[in-house]
Amino acid sequence: MTNVLLIIFIISLLYVSIANRIITYVRVLALQGFILFGVTFLQLKDIQTWNLVLIMLETIVFKAVAVPLFLSYLIKRNKITRETEPYLPHFISLIIITMIVVITVLLANSIQDTHLDKIFFIVSLSTLFTGLYFIASRKKIITHVMGYLMIENGVFVLSLAVGNEMPNLVNLGIMLDVFASVLILGIFLNKIGDVFKAVDVDQLSNLKDY
Amino acid sequence: MMTGFYLISAFAVAGLILINRKTLFNNILIILFGLLQVGFTIYACSNYKNTVLQYFTFDSLGLLLLMTLSIISIPALFHSYLYISRHDETPQSRSIYFSAIIVLITSISAAYIANHIAVIWIFTEMTTLSASMLIYHHRNKLALEGTWKYVFICAISITFVFIGILFLSLSLQHAGSNDISFANLMAYKDKLNPFWLRLSFLFIFTGFTAKLGLVPMYTAGIDAKDKAPAPAGALLASVLMNLGFIGIFRIYSIVAQTSLFHWANLIIFIAAFLSIFVATVYMTKVVNIKRMFAYSGIEHMGIVMLGIAAGGVGYYAAILHIILHAFVKSSLFFQFNQLYRTFQSKSIQYVGNYFKYNPSGAIVLLLGFISATAMPPSGLFVSEFLIFRSLFEGKYFILLIVILLLLTIVIWAFGKNIMKILFLPVQGLDETKVPRINPWESLTQYVLLFTAIWLGLNPPSIFVEMIQDAVKILPH
Question: Is it the case that residue A207 has pLDDT exceeding 90?
Fold first, then answer.
């Protein structure tokens, strides 16, 4: 069951790569939150109950509901256009993300390790690189933020892989999620949308030597 | 016990400043925090090598950097006070500024003495938060851009460090242990899995370069030091960079005990060389004075990491260099505000003949320039010379020659700009509008610069012993 959920997670990455509208990204992020909730529920069995409740609350309340709602609110409030505006065509994005997944699978297969479930390693690493690819290949600042949120999801999957032995690391990961998301989204909500009218990264190139 | 008291009361002071709007109460709280910081440093010295609250150890390196931080934080608070009182701030922006600077100093202090990688990580996150408040102080478009870039790059870096910690825990599970404190990692150094340790070092190193100011993540720091008010920029350019150093140094001292030692040195060599190269290229073109200081910091961090990678006497020199650099660079940033008040410009083009308008400040700039370019009699000359000796003894001749060439270009570019600021007359400056600057405001800069010279040329024996103790764990 865990494997099925994680494979759906990977498929969601491929789906994002050809998505045309920003709202699709938001929906996929919500879906990923629900998947992480399921994986947490199935994976973490040896840790204390209150800790498990905390982690599940974080995934379902924060990742699956609060952040996507907040993002769609941002999109409406700042009147961000619905197109994702990639620098590259969708077809090439699809190929690149497929390549990322294939390479991580090959890499994971070359590792002989009994302490790590391979599929967690594959999913987290390919999500990490996909997030970085989104940051590099999309024009809007809000898609950069979404790329970062995707990286965080990938890191969360990796922390689940070691979560039974070291639950404190999962808690740290939650702290990272909440802290960084609030900081980044807070700046985005309050400031960037107001000050910069069209929210493209091109607008953020005034700060230089003068 | 005292450590917990320090952390709680420092954050309480920050919170009180945040909600308080009265000037007098604000000033009392700032002085209170200054006393608290000094008191905690004295307490730390008296508890040398003890572990408190399980996660904090007053080891040599942490204590040295903590003392450096406390010495710099007093003038930083003083100059912040001058800066805020001159800029006609609203009570709200004043309280945000001071509360952020107190959280910054406290979290850097705690990160220095932490003996657990996760604790360092938590406090590094807090420095990102407080530093971003300082960078956004002016609340204009450029400050927002700088803040956004800083927050985004630091968020990615902190994620990288977290991935590194996860890999480190995987590596440690092979040794059959769960506790990732540095002491425990050191105890299990022979059983760590090299594959995961390698990945872990890569990620943690890359993550901390955002704070340290090395290639690849140095970019955000430059904008941050430019946009933050100069007293806050002084902290970002000195003690916050030391925080990045301590993060890398602690994980490096574990990796150095394993078979990955030479590989890790290679990684550090590449990053350090590229940093010096990038800094040189920008130094020749730069026209913004604060950015010039910031790029000089990148160059110095490159030199420090060269010393670490070369080994031998380089370890000692690297730690000496990073302490002296903190004194010199912070005094240059403190001096910048007087310069700005004289000329109302950050650009070298519109600044000149500073000796005529403010001789005491001009001497600080000149001394700071001599120190930052490591010319004798500055203390940095000693440390930089020792780093070159370690490169020579390690037989890295080609690297040494290229680095020396690059540093010559840096000295030329830095010198050209500083001489322009000090001596060449500037066109179109209305001399009646130049304010008279009180020479006493430069006193702290003189103290910092002379401390750097004194520690470099004639270090007290306890200082030398502490540095030697800090690098004792590294292979010689």
Answer: no
User: How far, in Å, CA of B13 to CA of B7, rounded?
Assistant: 10
Q: Which is it for the CA torsion B339, B344, B348, B353, positive or negative?
A: negative
**Is B214 part of a structural domain of the chain?**
no
Instruction: Work out whether the CA dihedral B374, B320, B248, A110 comes out positive or negative.
Output: positive
- Tell me: cis bond preceding B216? Omega within 30 of 0 counts: yes
What is residue A199's predicted lDDT score, i.e. its pLDDT? 61
Q: What is the pLDDT of residue A144?
A: 87
A182 close to B (CB below 8 A) = no
Give the domain extent around A112.
2-203
Q: Please state whether B176 falls in left (phi above 0), alpha (psi between -120 and 50) or beta.
A: left
Q: Contacts of residue B196 in chain A, CB cutoff 8 Å?
A: 113
Would you call B469 an interface residue with chain A, using a CB distance cutoff of 8 Å? no
Q: How far apart are CA B172 and CA A169, in angstroms?
A: 13
Residue B162 and residue A144: Cβ atoms within 8 Å?
A: no
Q: Which of A120, A133, A183, A196 to mutate to test the interface with B (most CBs of B within 10 A)?
A: A183
Please state the domain count of chain A.
1
Provide the ipTM.
0.92
Tell me the mean pLDDT in the region A124-151. Answer: 90
Is residue B424 situated within a structural domain? yes
Instruction: Tell me how many domains chain B contains.
Output: 1
Instruction: Note whether residue B409 is domain-resident.
Output: yes
> Could you give the residue ranges of the DSSP H alpha helices within B136-193?
141-173, 182-187
B-contacting residues in A 111-170 (Cβ below 8 Å): 111, 113, 115-116, 128, 141, 144, 148, 151-152, 155, 158-159, 161-162, 165-166, 168-169
- Which pTM was predicted? 0.94
Distance, CA of B195 to CA of B168 (rounded, Å): 10
**Cα of A50 to nearest chain B Cα, Å:** 21
Which residues of chain A are within 8 Å of residue B156 when distances are taken between CB atoms?
A: 148, 151
Q: Rounded to whole angstroms, how far apart are CA atoms B34 and A185?
A: 33
Range of the domain at B419: 260-476
Compare all CA atoms of chain B with the CA of A180 and give the residue at the minimum distance: B155
Reference B210, options B159, B284, B169; nearest CA is: B159
Contacts of A187 in chain B (CB under 8 A): 132, 144, 147-148, 151
Lowest average pLDDT, out of A66-80, A86-100, A177-191, B51-65, goes to A177-191
Distance CA A87, CA A93 (A): 10
Percent of chain B with pLDDT over 90: 77
